[in-house]
């Protein structure tokens, strides 16, 4: 009897420890992008176990996959779901289309799965399709109106994710400005963000800057490694990494359009572990440094030099390597994990991916767990 009580006591202590650890990670502003452009990924039910073991509690999807949302029912994971670019035209002209999409994709899950944001469109400005760009804000407004009709506008935010290509100037950060041809769309878009108090999302990749100019851009500066950095001549603020400089350049650009009340969050950032011959810098060593050092900054609740009181809010790209993504080799090698659950490189976390999960209404059974341990102790991040 005493042995049974002691065993129960230690299980309770372990549960309390994991819960506390999970809350600490959640509070740091770290999330993960869960892309699925692949034919060899584990089932969403298995992924739910993996993320729980890693204490990752924020996930961004590129759609509203019902299998994923169902698999994370009654979990402590907050989801950003995606509404693809292909929906924008219809929703911009017919608000009932947005209402129907929400009723089909969001309502069946919202009571059990924590959906906190809808990302309307992805990198719309990068398409240079001015018709599509013009559809973005009306579509966002349709989604927001539909959420309001359902009484969910305070529970679920409406936003969109953008590429850094929207910037005309990013150096120095205090001189950040938007491309002239996009300002007519960005001014009302930022007004809407301000009105509904939703964040402005940016996909930021210092890797691209290094790849394009490896002789001009110091590798240490993009990998958060010790380096002299640079001083903004207008503000005297010191920058020791490119990601923070990019974020502050975006804040400066937003300010030029009259807003200091819109928060910038990083919806994607990462580093590829493999690339084509001309993709200089793509390696597992550099990817481990980039993401490992980024996790440290998030854990320390670091803000950028211009926004020191606002801890950076980041979704790392990506959870898995995705073998069907088009483009250069790097596009298929941003994952922290291979599809079998093994780490691509070490960033100081541990977790496991079960081989099989049998699911019924009554039970969920895990069989033959694949367990892995990173070499760097997780305690170094807490």
TrEMBL record:
It catalyses: Hydrolysis of (1->3)-beta-D-glucosidic linkages in (1->3)-beta-D-glucans. Belongs to the glycosyl hydrolase 17 family. The lineage of its organism: Eukaryota, Viridiplantae, Streptophyta, Embryophyta, Tracheophyta. PANTHER family: GLUCAN ENDO-1,3-BETA-GLUCOSIDASE BG1-RELATED-RELATED. SUPFAM superfamilies: (Trans)glycosidases. Keywords: Glycosidase, Hydrolase, Signal. This is glucan endo-1,3-beta-D-glucosidase. It comes from Camelina sativa. InterPro entries: GH, Glyco_hydro_17, Glyco_hydro_17_plant. The keyword Cell division does not apply. It is an enzyme of class 3 (hydrolase). Gene3D superfamilies: Glycosidases. Its EC number is 3.2.1.39. Residues 1-22 form the signal peptide. It comes from the Eukaryota.
């Amino acid at each position: 009897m005493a042995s049974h009580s002691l065993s129960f006591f230690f299980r309770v202590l372990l549960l309390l420890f994991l819960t506390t650890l999970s809350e600490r990670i959640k509070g740091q502003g770290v999330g993960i992008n869960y892309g699925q452009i692949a034919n060899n990924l584990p089932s969403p039910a298995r992924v739910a176990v993996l993320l729980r073991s890693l204490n990752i509690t924020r996930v961004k999807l590129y759609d509203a996959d019902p299998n994923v949302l169902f698999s994370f029912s009654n979990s402590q994971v907050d989801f950003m779901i995606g509404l693809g670019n292909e929906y924008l035209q219809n929703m911009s002209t017919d608000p009932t289309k947005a209402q129907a999409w929400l009723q089909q994709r969001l309502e069946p899950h919202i009571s059990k799965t924590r959906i906190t944001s809808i990302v309307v469109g992805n990198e719309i400005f990068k398409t240079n399709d001015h018709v599509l760009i013009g559809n973005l804000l009306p579509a966002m407004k349709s989604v927001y109106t539909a959420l309001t009709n359902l009484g969910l506008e305070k529970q679920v935010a409406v936003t969109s994710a953008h590429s850094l290509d929207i910037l005309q100037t990013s150096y120095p950060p205090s001189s950040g400005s938007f491309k002239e041809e996009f300002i007519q769309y960005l001014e009302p878009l930022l007004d809407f963000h301000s009105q509904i108090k939703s964040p402005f999302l940016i996909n930021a990749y210092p890797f691209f800057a290094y790849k394009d100019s490896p002789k001009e851009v110091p590798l240490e500066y993009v990998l958060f490694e010790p380096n002299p950095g640079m001083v903004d001549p207008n503000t005297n603020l010191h920058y020791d990494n490119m990601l923070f400089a990019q974020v502050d350049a975006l804040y400066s650009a937003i300010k030029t359009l009259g807003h200091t009340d819109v928060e910038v969050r990083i919806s994607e950032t990462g580093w590829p572990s493999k690339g084509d011959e001309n993709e200089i810098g793509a390696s597992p060593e550099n990817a481990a440094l980039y993401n490992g050092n980024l996790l440290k900054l998030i854990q320390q609740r670091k803000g950028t030099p211009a926004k020191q009181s606002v801890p950076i809010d980041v979704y790392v790209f990506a959870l898995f390597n995705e073998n069907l993504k088009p483009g250069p080799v790097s596009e298929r090698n941003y994952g922290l994990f291979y599809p079998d659950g093994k780490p691509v490189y070490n960033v100081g976390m541990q977790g496991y991916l079960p081989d099989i999960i049998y699911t019924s209404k009554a039970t969920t059974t895990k069989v033959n767990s694949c367990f892995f341990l990173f070499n760097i102790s997780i305690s170094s991040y807490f």
